[in-house]
Design a protein that fits this description.
Layout: H1 3-14, E1 41-42, E2 75-76, E3 81-85, E4 90-92, H2 93-96, E5 105-111, E6 114-120, E7 124-126, E8 132-134, E9 152-154, E10 165-167, H3 174-185, E11 195-201, E12 210-217, E13 229-238, E14 241-251, E15 262-269, E16 278-285, E17 288-296, E18 303-312
Antiparallel strand pairs: 1-14, 2-3, 2-9, 3-4, 5-6, 5-9, 7-8, 10-11, 11-12, 12-13, 13-14, 15-16, 16-17, 17-18
The protein binds calcium ion (2 copies).
Length: 313
């Protein structure tokens, strides 16, 4: 595990959010995640036709919102700042130590089903008592709440959703089937996985849609038990072949197993202004919560975790 991930894990273990679940439940048997999912791409053997539609590639027209924007396009939650894109690379807020804001900046908010606008104050410490750096949003409710969908706020003028993003239904059970195959590959036999989220989107605007979905059955309060699963997958056409990429992979096979918590798609939007949309994922833990940003870099690198923060006890 690298140091940044360890820091997040420790952070999840150390601090106490306002939105904790079931604080009355004993935490003595709980183990927080000490592993993270690598972005992997695997091809599942299937003969099912993917319900990916092909449309004419859109012509993207740049439209910028007028506003009082931060010096750098800060991406934040209300329990900790994630970071920003500096024009060359992603910058982690905690590593940087100082946020590019003075207070009074405008923010666009994006989460599943919500696009909003708010403002925020100067840099403060949040996620008491962990003392993460962040800002206080004037309308934090726009972000959502535990266990999600929970979005992000970004002080940036560009259009956050320049391409298709829409909810879909698993009408033919195709995605339950993909989830069943994936779970089987992880050693769990689930005849009828429950699809909790399903979206059709075109991340990069190339006219070929991706499908992002979550299959999940977990114990209340995300105090995971044997047999629980929460997997977040993306089906994408790569070089003419439909492949499955993994955004979240929790499969509880045994009592002593470490787990990551439940996964949820929080938002899909362009968080660095390059016209390609990133995926914001939520991780729900027992008495903890995390938000991560995944960028689909290219077909070779696939989905890459680029920013994350979390607050939990
Ligand atoms: Ca696409
Ligand atoms: Ca982008």
């Amino acid at each position: 595990m690298n140091r940044a991930l360890l820091a997040v894990v420790l952070l999840l273990a150390a601090c106490s959010p306002d939105e904790s679940a079931d604080s009355s439940t004993s935490s003595s048997t709980t183990t927080l995640a000490t592993t993270t999912t690598e972005a992997t791409t695997t091809t599942l053997a299937t003969t099912t036709t993917l319900a990916t539609t092909t449309t004419t590639a859109e012509t993207t027209t740049t439209s910028l919102l007028a506003g009082n924007w931060a010096e750098e396009p800060l991406i934040t939650t209300d329990f900790g700042a994630l970071g920003w894109w500096d024009g060359l690379e992603w910058v982690d807020a905690e590593t940087e130590g100082a946020l590019p804001v003075v207070g009074g900046e405008d923010y666009q908010v994006i989460r599943v089903g919500v696009l909003g606008l708010t403002t925020a104050g100067p840099q403060v410490t949040v996620c008491d008592p962990l003392e993460l750096i962040g800002v206080e949003l004037d309308d934090p409710d726009l972000l959502g709440s535990y266990p999600g969908p929970y979005g992000v706020a970004i002080s940036a003028p560009w259009e956050l959703q320049p391409h298709l993003f829409e909810s879909a239904t698993d009408t033919n059970g195709d995605y339950a089937g993909f989830a069943r195959d994936f779970l089987a590959s992880r050693g769990m036999n689930v005849p009828s996985p429950v699809i909790t989220q399903l979206f059709r989107t075109d991340l990069e605007g190339d006219g070929v849609n991706e499908v992002v979905f979550v299959a999940e059955e977990v114990s209340p309060g995300y105090l995971l038990e044997v047999g629980d699963y929460s997997v977040a997958l993306m089906r994408k056409v790569i070089e003419g072949e439909v492949q499955t990429a993994v955004l979240g992979d929790t499969v509880v096979l045994g009592e002593d197993q470490q787990f990551e918590g439940g996964h949820r798609v929080g938002a899909v939007g362009d968080l660095n202004g390059d016209g390609k949309m990133e995926i914001v994922m939520n991780g729900a833990f027992f008495e903890g919560f995390g938000v991560s940003v995944w960028e689909y870099v290219n077909d070779d690198l696939g989905l890459t975790l680029v920013l994350q923060t979390g607050c939990g006890s």
